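Key idea: predict the complex, not the pieces.
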Amino acid sequence: MEVAAPFLHTFFTRLRSELQLPLDGAQYADFLMLYAAGHGQSREGLLDLCKALWLSRPALAPRFEQLFHECFQLSTPLPEPGVVPKPTPKPEPIPSPGPLPPMPPPGAEQNTDRPAPNLSRAPALADIELEFGAGEGNGTGSAPPAAASILETPFVFGDHLSLPFRPRYARQLWRKLRQQRYRMPSRQVDVGGTVRKLAQQGFLADLVWEESWRFAQRWVVLLDVCPGMVPFRQMREAWVDLLEQPDANSQVELLYFSSAPGQRGERFRLFRQEGLTQGVYLDTLAKAWPFGQQVLVFSDGGGASAGYDSRKTAAMLAFLNALKALQTRLAWFNPLPAAQWEGTTAALFAQAAPMFEITETGMAQAVRKALR
Amino acid sequence: MTGETSYKKYTGEGLKSGSKAWRARMGELPESEAAEFASRRALAPYRPSPKLVAAVEYARILRRPLLLRGAPGSGKTRLAEAVAYELYAEDWESHFFSWYIKSTTKAREGLYEYDHLGRLRDIEARRGGGDSAPMPPKTKYRTFGPMGEAFQSSTPGQPAVLLIDEIDKADIDFPNDLLRELEEQRFEIPDTKESIKAAHPPITIVTSNDEKELPNAFLRRCVFFYIDFPGPELLLEIAQVNARRLELEHQKPLPDGWLEKVVEQFQGLYQRMQANPNTEKLPSTSELLDWLRVLYYYFLTGQSAAPPLTDGELPHAEVLLKSLSDLQSNRQPDA
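Result:
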């Protein structure tokens, strides 16, 4: 185990916790075996070896390489090639996913693009209370300073502490949205009203039903599960968990798609299962939707891969238009920071549908501008 | 490690120069000896990057499948054939097993199939007195699939090469159904109560176009490699070995510098298309080789006496560009 520690073990652990790569001890032991056999002795060779053994999702290659180089900065010289590890190179127990590696001490040299959090900027709880009347924009950075959060670092993946929003904040936000009330007919006959109507019309055409306040909220959540969304999986799960807080007043319907909902003729297909099974057509779903159905989309809109696929782009634009035609209240949540949408298809989609960052500011604006 | 005390490594260089098979290809063998090779299928040259060669070696040492991903036409499928060809020369086909996956393919089909209907028919024939011959053994009705054959053929000195092509075409559970077979290199046939175990793991190469995400349980058993579009040097090398083959086959050499110009023009096209967000499909190595063959054909048949490349046109662009909009916007390099 001492062969490549601590640098490679740190790297391996960060791959698990930050990129959510499903790596286990056997894969670390594979690395040790190949390294002992003389493979991966140069920096580039070592990176290639790690990629061959651990990079199971090609879309994560840029972040994988960045992490490698970050960790390599901290490395100590590796032993001579061909040194065989101790007879039974049992891998150390892998820590459970979640905790991030400790931050380097202040002043320690570390080549990282991620700025250290400035704790002095931590807002008081009062600062984060929702003020629906304040601020303008589409969640892309023109937020009032009071709502800005030290946690708005969307590229930090890991446990809840490193999400770009505070779960408590998001929970409050969704609760407020759920508490919107609507007057709806109940099942009880309004006797007084019926008699009045009878007296006015001179005949009984229909009963008058009592009206009551309802909180009924049903959210349709469309989740992109294309391979490029893998890095955002934990963020997505935390976000969906908060939406799904047990509440008699609301229902959340999760539907999945990959890159762009499949189109067959004029019908768009979504899936009830994450593995893209149990397909269901949008027009079938929409039959049960009320006017102004709230639809939440969670996708990077192709921003993470920065690629361009005209077929998928056209399909997604057509899908957004179809949602608009159904008179939905639509909000697109993009896990990437708005600064990174520029020059990608995400910027294009942001013009077709209201798109927001998954930050406290972005979510608040989504509620205020798109979902209410 | 590999379990082999000494083994022939895959180097990516193809046939060793001087070997009998190589000499047969070069036309250097006397006719009597060359006849032996005439009926055997020879493969077009394949030039992998050094990183890909290393990945094959990793997979072999770890006894894990090599999962290859990359754009269509990048040469994923051809790697397996090239490995077998380099290791076994003209005899490669007897060591190479390919399993082309379809959307309906089931994992068991790659291991074995059992002809229950045939057996029932034979039983009925004997029951009615129509056939007095004794019943054939149960194993007569069992046929092995590519993976089953590879397991049986593979030996420490001569590992088989197994290609599982386009695994992402199959049902999402398909890769999971092969976990045990890939891990333990064995499987059981309940109908005949046989247990088949590979004497040595075959070199398994799995390709995927990433149309579906593969399950984590399968991924953790693989070595990975993504075939990128080759760099200028490798691209020229690929073109050179393929052009050399055409020249040998037709005994008509290309003018000096012509091939370099072809590759340069192809790379220019690739870079322009890569920068264009409206591009529908980037040309791949496979398209370059097709284009090369077409250009050589016109050169060979005298339909173009001189090399037909000029700076102002892209001849036979249909071979490179597979969609109408790409064709319209790239037919003229200056467009």
